[in-house]
Automatic annotation (TrEMBL):
Name of protein: DNA ligase-associated DEXH box helicase
Keywords: Ligase
Molecular function in Gene Ontology: ligase activity; RNA endonuclease activity
Source species: Chitinophaga cymbidii
Lineage, highest ranks first: Bacteria, Pseudomonadati, Bacteroidota, Chitinophagia, Chitinophagales
InterPro entries linked: MBL, RibonucZ/Hydroxyglut_hydro, Xnuc_lig_assoc
Amino acid sequence: MEPVLTFTDKGIYCAAGDFYIDPWKPVPRAVITHAHSDHARPGNQHYLCTKDSVPVLQLRLGQDISVQGLAYGEQIYINGATVSFHPAGHMIGSAQVKVTVNGQTWVASGDYKTENDGISGAFEPVKCHVFITESTFGLPIYHWKPQSAMLGDIRSWIHENQQAGKNSVLVAYSLGKAQRLLYNLQHAVPKFLVHGAIFNAHEMLRSQGWPLPPVELITPQTPKEDFKNSLIIAPPSATGSSWMRRFLPYALGICSGWMQVRGNARRQNADAGFAISDHADWPGLLQTIKATGAEKVFATHGFSSVLARYLQENGLEAEEVKTAFGAEEDDTPVIAE
């Protein structure tokens, strides 16, 4: 039997449907798992994604793109393939792609996390014959604390900074992570001040009806007094820039799964590191793979060789696959000095 999906130099390809999933080179028809830049690239003739991803994709790639949105679970028939999207829990609108051809079902996960963060939607494992999984944090050392505990750590850190007369600056990826923090910390501080990259995405999502708190855009005219008793959220690209100097004196906290490793916060000259990630940890990866009931697993972007070898040693057919995913800022490992 021919495989439902194959791995090509343009991306994950479905020959029966003649489409690509998250292609990294321009193609006529692209099926998109989510709107992060490493999975949704410009130049494709037509995009298919979830309904919630449509405005995010248009924000990133332009209003004039040809795009169609589907509800979760809604089926579409593309030539000889049946395609549907299922919640991935990674960010607003993110999905796994289920593709069935001649009774054989493959699922491409894109990026996913298994803990419901309250705003991104609850992850749903999908039964399949073959599962293509990310492995961003595919090492046993990565085991996330419950979100409630991590948010408690962040609230305590903000309080400590206030007591010390310091402004609190959290670094988080502008699309996904920032909204997760804003949604879950909206009762912890009286005001949020944000970088322009976060403001644009946030305002677009609020305009779509997402229950996110109001934020204020930081400009050269923002009074220094406004920084006190507020939470400032900035993208990773802002760290170490002149833009940050306006917040002095401040404490810097980095929100990333890479903060699980001791020393990574120090290497980035941060005062605190919070291991809060929008990707599955090691237990989450293993639990998901088991829940799919897949007979074979392909491990992509991340510690794919480690995960594939572990699965093989535990009796499951598994392979490592090289892809061009993993270039979003939260996916970039901190390199030790």
